[in-house]
Write a structure and sequence with these properties.
Helices cover 86% and strands 0% of the residues. By secondary structure, the protein is an all-alpha fold.
């Protein structure tokens, strides 16, 4: 194993741990967030952290399917964040 490969594995491990900690902290904000806006922002942050986790696992395993899953998570996360924000602000999603 070369030095660059070991550094890459260490960097992937650190990225995985940092993203997992961010996910847990976002879940805490989702539960204790005092306003609806805080909860929407925490949910959006959780989607971004999940996206990062999927990409890091895909890079680590070297499987290309994870990147397609990451695109689906990103699209669903965007739509769900917009829908939830509209619901919190207006009380309905579809006008």
């Amino acid at each position: 194993m070369t030095l660059a490969t070991s550094f890459f594995d260490i960097a992937l491990s650190i990225a995985l741990v940092v993203l997992a900690i961010g996910q847990v902290l976002s879940m805490v904000r989702l539960v204790i967030g005092p306003t609806g806006g805080d909860r929407v922002l925490a949910l959006d942050t959780m989607v971004i952290n999940a996206l990062g986790l999927v990409v890091v696992v895909g890079i680590h395993q070297g499987v290309g399917v994870y990147f397609e899953v990451a695109l689906l998570v990103a699209m669903l996360g965007f739509v769900s964040t917009v829908a939830l924000a509209r619901f919190v602000l207006r009380g309905d999603i579809i006008e």
